[in-house]
Amino acid sequence: MFTARWPGILPSLLHPPDRHGGRGTATGIALVAGVEAIARNCPAGPHLMSASLVQDGLPTLWATSGRGAGEIQCDDGTVELGMAFARRDPVLHPGRATVRFTLRDWYTGEQLAESTRTIWIPC
Q1: Whole-angstrom Cα distance, residue 64 to residue 77?
Q2: How far is the C-alpha of 68 from the C-alpha of 48, rounded, in Å?
Q3: Cα dist. 2→45, 48, 77, 78, 98 in Å?
Q4: Do 119 and 7 meet the contact criterion of CB atoms below 8 Å apart?
Q5: pTM metric for this prediction
Q6: Terminal alpha carbon distance of the chain
Q7: Does the bond joining 122 to the residue before it have cis omega, within 30 degrees of 0?
Q8: Which of 6, 20, 54, 103 is 20 to 30 A from 40, comparing alpha carbons?
Q9: Strand ranges for 2-88 from DSSP E
């Protein structure tokens, strides 16, 4: 069911404010990796999306307001899935990582699709 766009990494830098309220310093840089996939023939209705990124054997948090699965609405067609990931200690870095997307039925929890890929986070 999944057709992923690879590479699907959209890196950006976050500069947290420094202790003096400024715009941020290089000491607090964290790489944010955005990953996208496409689910084809997604059954109509609400579904739960789970996404994970692992680098160097360590999990990574969603760089959004949630940590769990997201709600996806399908219409028997194609739906784009995406998630941004970030980690502060140790930070994400250019190199290999493993990404997994899973879709489950909202009501039954039945797994509809899963896709795992090894990706490269660019500089």
Answers
A1: 26
A2: 9
A3: 17, 14, 12, 9, 16
A4: yes
A5: 0.71
A6: 31
A7: no
A8: 54
A9: 2-4, 12-14, 30-39, 45-55, 58-59, 61-62, 70-74, 79-86
Q: Please, which residues have CB within 8 angstroms of residue 50's CB and are 6 or more apart in sequence?
A: 68, 69, 70, 100, 101, 102, 103, 104
Question: What average pLDDT does the segment 48-68 reach?
Answer: 81
Residue with tokens 């944010």: 32
The residue with tokens 């990582």 is 97
Cis peptide upstream of residue 90 (ω within 30 degrees of 0):
yes
Give buried/exposed letters for 45-67 (b at 16+ CB in 10 A, else e). Answer: eebbbbbbbebeeeebebbeeee
Alpha-carbon gap, residue 73 to 66, rounded angstroms? 17
Whether 9 shows a pLDDT value over 60: the answer reads: no
DSSP letter, residue 28: G
Where does the pLDDT of residue 27 fall: very low under 50, low under 70, confident under 90, or very high at 90 and above? very low
CA dihedral in degrees (76, 40, 101, 88; nearest 10)? -100
